[in-house]
Amino acid sequence: MNIEWSSGRLTDSAKANALVLMISESEAQHGGVSAEWDRRLHGLNKAGLFEGKVNQTYALPLEDHPACSLAILTGVGAGPLDKSDLRLWAAQLVRTAIRLKMQRVILQLPQDFALRAAGLSDMEAAQALSEGFILGAYRRKHYKLDQSQFGIDHLLIHQEGEAEEERAAGWREGLERGQAFGEGTNLARDLTNTPGNLLIPSDLAVAAIAVAERYGFPAEVLDEQEIARKGMGGLIAVGKGSVNPPRMIVIRYQGTGEWENVIGLVGKGITFDTGGISLKRAPGMEDMISDMGGAAAVLGVMEALGRLRPPINVVMAIPSAENMPAGNAFKPGDIVTSYSGRTIEVLNTDAEGRIVLADALTYIREWGAERIVDVATLTGAVLSTLGDIATGAVTNNEALLEEIMAAGDSAGEKIWQLPAYPEFRDMLKSEVADIRGSAGRYGGATTAGLFIGTFAEGLPWVHLDIAGTAFLARERGVNPKGASGVMVRTLLEWLLSQALLPKAGATD
Description:
The chain is of the alpha/beta class. Helix content is 37%, strand content 20%. The strands form four sheets. Strands 7, 8, 9, 10, 11, 14, 15, 16 and 18 form a nine-stranded mixed β-sheet that branches.
């Protein structure tokens, strides 16, 4: 979707199918838009057809408008709109336009838009709107004979009156940023929604290399022989039961002159998870195409970094495998030697994600990562605690997690910290290995996270368990049914905030 912003007089050249007006409850009831629109709104309100309530829409034909043949009235309620309100409003607006088969749309902002978007800069408002439009316009790819799928081609956000250059620059910067956030999220959604037979570990590597080549990023893909030679025993163990061998994928983004203050992002890339020898139940197993949602999220972040080019340094790693049952698959009771040299006692082969992530955390440290965030569809236990509403978090660094949770608030993605008491760490002690791969049902989301954190070797680290939030049973908010692309926008908000921070020890 092409999104543009303009100010001044709307010319005849700005042709579109629909004109969208943002109407408050007060305007719907008492007027204040214009003499012509006040008359129409009064009639609709009196008939009970449109009252300006939040998310209420009404479409009516326009006979004499120079640019559009249809108007879509959209309600924004009574109060000012924050960033999440604007994002959601835009997502629902674009869904309405798609249902009406509108390809080109003009959004006419009211004169007092700055007052309605209380507390937001022009850049923040523009970002929220463009994010919402792109997230709401997403349609999951289907594989039917009829491949036709309707979408919006062009959106013009127009504001009456000439805007100062500073304001225009803020709007354009915000639109660019919002589009990068939205497209990065939609890339993650596309990958996560891809069926397991069409996305094996080598396919995920191809998708990653495509992102790297698009933006000129250095990248590396280790095949099964190279993984084995390096001694990445966790990744080899999890992947050896499949005919589709594992991959370790790395992409580097350098936005400053020196490779320093490097942030490491690690995403779990299990392209399909049967549970292995500890086989899952059949009902719902089809959703395990989403078990690489963490990998998709960090790839979506790299896509957006390529568009925005902030002055930060990021290295991304994805350990990718299929977890399948076979005669040579790893088994409960096995002892696996990780890339760090630590031995892992395997108690449940369906606790495979943490084992591949262990190797990736060790490897990303070799690439210079000084702070690490891992994203993974890791545990069913987090669903029992937080449902599909919030992402669970475990950390060894409270300050780092607070930054990421603040970014989640800005992005409209909920994060809840799980406790990491010493007693949980004790549950991971093994009699026969350095660490147990599973500590049982109780506290499972926390112990799984703490297992991964062991391999951070004391570096500041945050684990984000997206098992509940990565793949939704129904549309909610800006997210569609299926893959949500969760954590792409949160991580981007956090990374861009780091780009604005002064270097340690710097003075004015």
